[in-house]
Amino acid sequence: MPLTDRYIGSELSVVERELIFNDKYANVGFVKYDTKDGEYFFLNPSPFLKTSKNEIYHVSGHPPPENQFIEANVIDEKTVILPRTVRKSINVKEVDSWKLFDPTPLAQRRKILDFEEIVEYFAYPLTGEDEVVEEIAGCSSLFAFSSPPIEDDTGGIKSAIFGKNYQWDLFRKPLKVIPDDFRKTSSDYYYYISKLERNLSKTEGEVNLAILQPEKLVSDIPIYFEGVKERKHSKDYYSLLDQESGVITAYILDSLLLKPQYTGKVEAMMHDAIYELREEYYSSGQRPYHQNVGDALPKLASSYARLRASPDIEPPDVKYATDLWFSMFRKAEKITSNPAKISDLFLITGDARKVYYKLYDIFGADYWIPVIEAVEVMAMDPEDVEISVDALVEKGYCVRKEGHIMLLEPFK
Hints:
Elements: H1 14-21, E1 28-33, E2 40-44, E3 55-59, E4 69-81, E5 89-100, H2 104-107, H3 115-122, E6 126-127, H4 130-145, E7 158-162, H5 165-172, E8 189-194, E9 206-212, E10 218-219, E11 221-224, E12 229-230, H6 235-255, E13 261-262, H7 264-283, E14 290-291, H8 296-307, E15 312-313, H9 315-332, H10 342-346, H11 350-363, E16 368-370, H12 371-378, H13 382-395, E17 398-401, E18 404-407
Parallel strand pairs: 3-5, 7-9, 7-11, 8-9, 10-14, 13-15
Antiparallel strand pairs: 1-2, 1-4, 2-3, 4-5, 6-12, 16-18, 17-18
């Protein structure tokens, strides 16, 4: 079912239900322009659902930003026939002012399922040792809940899947909770789940990739299907799962409105964890995939915060993401007989090397550098600096947050 066709209560997210049915939010919604200048616009109940109300808003002079939640102050209403409505009457609400609206408090209100039950849903096709099944389900959950962009990079979780064909099919089964709308490259929340790698030019929004035994993909986490088989259920149980899947989809839609970032209280914990990940990855003699060293844990922790309906990354999120990555990596490294030279793995070259050592000489490591200041110091094209930072993050020489980057000490 397309996301735009949902109107049954269980199919709606909390934010959508509140904005549709609660009079308190009668003039609150997600802005979509009707005219290019933004003077006429609709307020949808979410980015994923068009309004069913026969109304349009009009403002003179200063239109609200498109693709943002706002609350409009309506001073007048009238029913008119607009040329573009093909002679159908529509209620026009006259707006004299508006303000941005934060949907986060609404998106956090979830009572039907707790997050442990969500993880259990992703485990339903699997049977095996409890700990193994739980870890795989956890990885699948993080993939489904995606992660917001860090700085100007795309968000999303990239997963390298290792297992046999039937285990790949088991991985895909619970992912039907991801709407088909999100499998289109035009979506701001894009999911590509395939045995085949492909070149993607998408540079905005959230991009989630799950590839079976990838050769080129730079992954945030491997998912290794060790010792698990298909678990059979009764027809009645599958019927209950179908009902539950709709609830989980609505849960995901609320979660995608949350943009968890790590703050000062967990910053040191996060950076220590990144250093540990880098040490583990580069010290390993064998690895079957390419690892995103600098951004992986912030992304995984952010996804887990979304799963918990938290607007911030907290210590339990960092711990869960770190423990899960270490467990999966140590299992995945056993399946390859293709050791790589350590120096080849963490070697940085070209502009990335130039950017790292010049900024290191000036600012040192473990210090937040404003991106604007870094560009000024380098006297390079900002795009070239951004590309260099991407390379440094991938290799584990740098981490980033909004408007800033931080160099990590060189790997020794």
